[in-house]
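Hi X.,

You mentioned you wanted examples for the new student's onboarding notes, showing what a folding record looks like when two proteins sit in one file. Here is a clean example. The first protein comes first, with its sequence line followed by its structure tokens.
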Amino acid sequence: MTHMSSPITKGVILAGGKGTRLHPLTRVTNKHLLPVYDRPMICYPIESLIRAGIKDILIVTGRGHAGHFVELLESGQAYGAHFSYAVQEEAGGIAQALQLAESFVGAGKFIVLLGDNLFDYDLRPAMERFADSPKQASIFLKAVSDPRPYGVAVISNDKLVEIIEKPAAPTSNLAVIGLYLYDESVFSVARELKPSGRGELEITDVNNHYLRAGTLGYEILDGWWGDSGESFDSLVQATLHMVQKKSVSS
């Protein structure tokens, strides 16, 4: 009998946090509402999901600016999609924010994007591979010049052997980017986590759980990727990339 998988139909965009690395720009707004060329940052991950066929999207954000997201994005009708919203009471890490998606996801596999990660990449093939696989989680890796601000993946003989969070001296240049695939087991995994030294529930701890269990897959991202919320420089680089992309297509 052939294995029939259910397609992935739900997406979660995490757009919380204090955005302290972008002060003073983020003193009065959420960083995901800052402009990247001709639209707010949050619009790019939404468009990535919609291009991949995901029309049911949950946006998780923090207190203070949640109403601004609703004002900007509304119900999702303008995108031909349906948007739901959840509010993270305090900045407690990606894995904490992810727990707010449990009732939205229910059962089945889903995709998670960080709202400041932008890329030229078709998500659909990777989602289809994950839907067809027995894996419970999958991460995306990108070779970068300085992986120190990220979780760093160590691969040996095509096998993922370790993920180290923000290492001072990385042994690999493969950063774990803000794009993840999970099944519903991730919510119970996240509930068991202990806060890190930063006082946050770390997504690297979630991914290492699946790595130890042998149920974590990985994909190496091709094409451009930008972490537009990492620094002022990365925000400018993302903007310049989008300007160039628009001028090429026009």
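Then the second protein repeats the pattern, sequence line and then tokens:
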Amino acid sequence: MAARSKPPFRADHVGSLLRPPHLIEAREKRKRGEITAGQLKELEDKEVRAAVKLQEDAGLQSITDGDYRRGHWWMDFVSAIEGAAVEGGMPIHFQNAGGQNAWVPPKTVVKSKLKHSRDISVDDFKFLRSATTRTPKQCVPSPSIMHFRGGRGAVDRGAYPEMDGFFTDVARVYNEEFRALKGVGCRYIQIDDVNFAFLCDPKMRDLTRKIGEDPDKLPHTYSRLINDTMKGLKPDIVFGVHLCRGNHMSNWVAQGGYEPVAEAMFNELDVDAFFLEYDSDRAGGFEPLRFVPKGKFVVLGLITSKFPQLENKDAVKRRIEEASKYVPLDQLCLSPQCGFASTIEGNKVTVDDEKRKLALVVDIAREVWGA
């Protein structure tokens, strides 16, 4: 079985890393006006270089900036789109093993016509590319986040009397950002999408109906939307979609296997790879992978980023073997199930835990697929 010289790599990862405490403190100082934007950027540059080294030392070939310039996996990006804002919240809470409620996730509100009035990720990617000789990967929140949590009611009717116009503009904004990234050398983009996974949860499906949306139609709608964002950019850029069920301070939101969305998602989404959460029973079994067509890759998220306990190597190999009953081994790769810090607070793990987890992914991939 061959290793891969291009993405997705046999050992890959989702992207975010634990922020150093002094970087978090510096962001707060910037908000209070105690340091300049230039001073914050200087510190971010230094820490991004350290994040790159951490990934390279682990043996990874895909390199991200760890989300070090963001406070949250999607809010910073969406807030930079003209016409969009982050407000309110969903009527659902993050949960943990004890069943306790935690943070209520917010939603996007569209207040006027959407415009790509400035590049959002380009400067961040340019720096990342300059800091590594390996493959830099840019992580971008899915365009479905512009719609899922509020539906029609969160989109201004004056700006968009018909939803077709809204979806067209969302796709255009993203496509313009992706083209700008391509222009500075980006060839690997990961689209982070929790909403396909949320649509696997019966409670979330009920909430979707309550805001006037059809959970059976949304996988088709979102597949078309994401495909439109990539128009004219393939095969120059490799696109992956990452799915998870919530990741905030080791807490989660949704549960349920991929069966409700699998057929539409795997066959209608024109991406190269699916990064799938598979670190707990909440993600269900591998049976939905039977819908994955030839030519598309599944990156199995079998290593948890939520907890410090290191997985047993042989147990992970057995799970890869089980998945290969539904998708050929040559179409499979391995990663953690999510980032280590989707939000600025990070999961309840240490940097040493993070390093061990990433190194384990690389070690297992070498043993399964070769160097």
